[in-house]
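FW: tagging you since you asked about this chain on Friday. Here's the raw sequence from the shared folder, copied in full. Didn't touch anything.
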Amino acid sequence: MPIIFSTSSLALPGTLARFTGLSVLKNAVVTLNPGGVLYIPTNILLIAFFNYYYTFLQLDPDDVREQLKRQGASIPLVRPGKSTAAFINTVLSRLSVLGSAFLAVLAAGPSAVEQITHLTAFSGFAGTSVLILVGCATDTARKV
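HL: got it, structure written out here
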């Protein structure tokens, strides 16, 4: 999801430029389109932001703490209560950073290689495509 949100956010100035015709947006489109100067750095930052946000949207540390409390379970070496939520928050933050780095390499890697080497072999194949295919295949296998 973070890659999809990032790509959609990068496409927004182009869509708005077509509807409004503003020159500021047209200049933004040139720099934010694939191959533009700011495309890869902006894409990486947006992926990191959306990944961090989406992680905590899906898994709230306080909800996990309450579920553990209701089940009578605990995390070894962590005191039940607010310490558990703080521990889960720390772990999720660290995992989000690693996940963001992985997603950024997967999504921006082919574009970076294409810009550095000036080869267009990667234009039709990106890590994002593989992620979508694997996600769809996994979801289909789970439903069958």
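FW: DSSP finds six helices and no strands in the chain.
HL: agreed, and The CA atoms of residues 34 and 111 lie 7 Å apart.
FW: great, closing this out.
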